Amino acid sequence: MNVSLAAVDEFEAPGLGIFDFPPLWDGAPYWLNKPVVMAGVGVVLVCALAWGAFARPKLVPRGLQNAGEYTYEFVRDQIARPFLGKDAERWMPLLLSMFALILLWNFMGVVPGIQFPVNSHIEFPVIFALVVYVLKIYLGIRHQGLGGYFKNMMFPPGLPKPLAIALFAPLELLYNFVTAPFTHAVRLFANMFAGHLLLAFFSAVGFWFLIAHPTVPGVSIGILSVAMAVAMTALEIFIQFLQAFLFTMLAAMFIGGSLHPEH
After folding, report:
1. CB of 97 within 8 A of CB of 183?
2. CA angle at residue 62 from 61 to 68, to 5 degrees?
3. Where exactly are the transmembrane stretches of this chain (predicted)?
């Protein structure tokens, strides 16, 4: 038992250091690290899969084309059409690319040998959120006019003006220009960050008590940790898909709100 307690005392849980990657080689730019390379590989892979699926479409889809069409229909029917209506097809290239790339970057967190979700680095979700945010404002002003954009945002029909001026308008300004883009990025980042940290913790505990410092009392802890790591991996795959879906859905909702403020 004392040996087991000593092993527990020596164990160091994974911390923020697992998200810190140095440059790929000495003298390389500070930003050229593993997550950046993984992000670039993800972009190339999504383009290659799209080319393989749709470059030579057949009447009866099979293989990559079949998977690509299922993905397209899912994004179109579950994300684009509910928020964009008749404009859904026009925005499908953006929404489909966004969904596929975010999903692939998320899934990298459970791929053996890679095991790092790109979106657990805040700069990647921020870039996506900023693109959607700028697009949302641009489309709103273009389709509604500058005055109409702020009027529709701050003074909805039927709301008494004193109440709108005193309460609703300031809250809407705060939501549209601060809260919405912030939460859009942080929701994706926080889920990928927390999920990767939990997987790393349970995997490290299992490795420590079963391989690095095996003891009779520690075996039960190691086995339990491995079981938790397996269960958390299954849960993480679901969350990775869900977060890609939610991020893309919110993008469609923001674009739709700028194009059709009456809805």
Report:
1. no
2. 75
3. 36-55, 91-110, 122-141, 162-182, 241-259
Q: 163: which 2 tokens?
A: 């109440």
Nearest to 124 by CA among 175, 197, 188, 180: 188
Tokens read off for 106: 């998320």
User: Tens digit of pLDDT for each residue in 79-134?
Assistant: 999 999 999 999 999 999 999 999 999 999 999 888 999 999 999 999 999 999 99
Structure tokens at 100: 């596929």
CA distance 168 to 261: 16
With tokens 């000495």, the residue in question is 26
Interaxial angle between packed helices 34-54 and 88-107, expressed in degrees from 0 to 180 and rounded to the nearest 10: 130
Number of domains in the chain: 1
Q: What is the largest CA-CA distance in the chain?
A: 73
Q: Domain range for residue 198?
A: 2-259
Rounded-to-integer distance, Cα 7 and Cα 120, Å: 30
Q: DSSP for the chain, please give it.
A: -HHHHHHHHH-----GGGG----SSTTS-TT-SHHHHHHHHHHHHHHHHHHHHHSS--SS--HHHHHHHHHHHHHIIIIIHHHHGGGHHHHHHHHHHHHHHHHHHHHGGGSTTT---GGGSTHHHHHHHHHHHHHHHHHHHHHH-HHHHHHHHH--TTS-HHHIIIIIHHHHHHIIIIIHHHHHHHHHHHHHHHHHHHHHHHHHHHHIIIIIS--HHHHHHHHHHHHHHHHHHHHHHHHHHHHHHHHHHHHHHHHHHHH-TT-
